[in-house]
User: Which sequence fits this backbone?
């Protein structure tokens, strides 16, 4: 059994022990507790380091544990109402969080839809207007139809066949582009 497997087993044991005392926690919370008990900052760090095979000295190779998980592009916006109309009303995203240092200051808004998270920012230094984000996806035909069915006044995106796949490009009110693409196959 690897160290990684032992840590997962430890998490299952923690969860079972707490359940016997009528304390219900999620599996992910049990993994976080196991990681903390083993001296790691969080489960992602523990998992990466515990999976790394030891080098000749018996220590884990730190570069073997580097993993990128998700990317949340930051897009510059200038008007909260227009951003909500486009990203939530038209594209179908949901608000995940919003932050302002105090009322009246610029908005920083997190939105998400089925695995894609975007950050929208009114802060001057966060991003440049006119950025492009490339989003690999599946179900592009259905998404295209969903967007057309919304009858958005400022755009009716089309599908473009490219040699790498089918692409659907949308333009937000601030000059940013999102290229959704389903791989050719």
Assistant:
């Amino acid at each position: 059994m690897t160290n990684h497997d032992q840590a997962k087993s430890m998490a299952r044991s923690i969860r079972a022990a707490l359940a016997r005392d009528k304390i219900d926690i999620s599996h992910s919370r049990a993994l976080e507790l196991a990681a903390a008990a083993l001296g790691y900052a969080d489960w992602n760090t523990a998992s990466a380091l515990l999976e790394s095979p030891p080098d000749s000295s018996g220590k884990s190779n730190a570069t073997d544990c580097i993993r990128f998980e998700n990317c949340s592009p930051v897009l510059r916006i200038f008007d909260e109402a227009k951003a909500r109309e486009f990203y939530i009303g038209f594209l179908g995203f949901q608000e995940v969080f919003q932050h302002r240092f105090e009322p009246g200051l610029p908005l920083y808004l997190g939105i998400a839809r089925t695995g894609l998270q975007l950050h929208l920012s009114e802060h001057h230094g966060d991003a440049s207007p006119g950025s492009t984000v490339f989003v690999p996806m599946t179900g592009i035909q259905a998404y295209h139809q969903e967007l057309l069915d919304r009858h958005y006044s400022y755009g009716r995106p089309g599908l473009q066949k490219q040699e790498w796949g089918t692409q659907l490009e949308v333009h937000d009110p601030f000059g940013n582009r999102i290229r959704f693409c389903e791989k050719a196959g």
User: Anything to note?
Assistant: Residues 153 and 173 are 12 Å apart (CA to CA).
